[in-house]
Amino acid sequence: MGVARRDARRDGRTFTIVVSVLVGLAAVPVLALVVLSGTASADGAPSSPVAPVLGILLASIPVVPLVLCYLWLDRYEPEPRVLLGLGLAWGACVACAVAVLVEGVGGWVTGWSDRAQLAVLAPFTEEACKGVFLVMLLLWRRHELDGVLDGIVYAGMVGIGFAFTENIFYLAAAYNGTDAITPDGSALDSTAVLTGTFIMRCLFSPFAHPFFTAFTGIGVGIAVGSRSGVVRVLAPLVGYLCAGLLHMCWNGSTVFGVGGFLLTYVVVMLPAFAGLVVLAIWARRSERTMLAASLGDAADRGLIPYLDVPWVVDLAARRMARQFARQYGGPAGEAAMKEYQQAAIELGFLHSRYLRGTAPPDFASRGKEYVARIGAVRPRIAFPGQVVTTR
């Protein structure tokens, strides 16, 4: 194994250990905040411990659909589930805990009003706390990032985790009536406030935090594929600034009441979100073109059979090949087909970076590993239309 490959694996272990420890440490204060969110009602009377439980249950509802959307985007080369899980945990624990601390200290130091903190301090603080995970990926797990789409996927996971914890706080507070006081000082009906908060945060805008952080992810994805040192530094920074500005626009709209919020939602957020969705789908489709060209060149070099390429780069053909393998080889045959396709896809992404002149330091050792995996599995699989020998 080459020195670069050993360094990459050591950095990968370091990343996993550091993130896991930070998540564990941050989980304690976050859990305490969740419990405290249900300790007092608006009128000062003790509230029911049901509040944080309701917050957790209701905040969980949009999590699964959002995660599935990002996994759908990430079908060509699925990112390691461990890393995706760490992204969720980072957003839910570390980013939330640090953001609460920094915003509290920042508000005390600056003396800003609550509205000013909400509109200016909170957006850039929260996007920085979420974006640190992406920067750490860029520094320590760079080989897991292949471009803009990977950056969007990881950013989405961090944003989903952050939104989950933040929604718990808001929903629990809503049930207690602590965020709904009438001008005469009395609390509004807790069930009505909870319902309104749930509709607004979990149904009307569950995509907000993943959407904002996606711009930092885009910047990180651009940095991975660039040969310019200036771009590699500036792209994540510009992405972060875009994330912060959009977040600021979103938070600031609430200062002007329901009308201002709805106007911002329709005029700014929905078009921007639609544009991001189009970009993500385009990026996924462009991966097919890139992989076809990359693996075609690899086939010309004798690294993979040329006739196998369509069964790897076309998603419908991949599913057909796996069904065929399962039909004739059972679960073991299907597993072998998945292994072959995954190794070929990873080779395609790596070879594409070589062709673009942005190959990582461990390019040679990783390339040999993928080719060895392909060679080891290929005799045990067959694609539709090929002769299959059964025993």
Folded structure, characterized:
This protein is an all-alpha fold. The chain contains 13 helices and no strands. α2 packs antiparallel against α6 (148-176), α5 (114-140) packs parallel to α8 (208-225) and α9 (229-253) runs antiparallel to α10. The radius of gyration is 24 Å and the shape is elongated.
**Cα-atom radius of gyration:** 24 Å
What is the mean pLDDT? 86
Number of domains: 2
Helix run count? 13
SSE series: HHHHHHHHHHHHH
What structural category arises from helix and sheet content? mainly alpha
Strand content: under 5%
Shape from CA axes?
Answer: elongated
Which ranges are low-confidence, i.e. pLDDT below 50, for 5 or more consecutive residues? Answer: 42-46
Distance between the termini: 38 Å
Strand runs, count: 0
Keywords:
mainly alpha; hydrolase; 391 residues; PrsW family intramembrane metalloprotease; transmembrane helix
Strand-helix topology:
Blueprint: H1 3-36, H2 50-60, H3 63-73, H4 81-110, H5 114-140, H6 148-176, H7 190-204, H8 208-225, H9 229-253, H10 257-300, H11 310-313, H12 315-356, H13 363-377
Protein name: PrsW family intramembrane metalloprotease
Keywords: Hydrolase, Membrane, Metalloprotease, Protease, Transmembrane, Transmembrane helix
GO molecular function: metallopeptidase activity
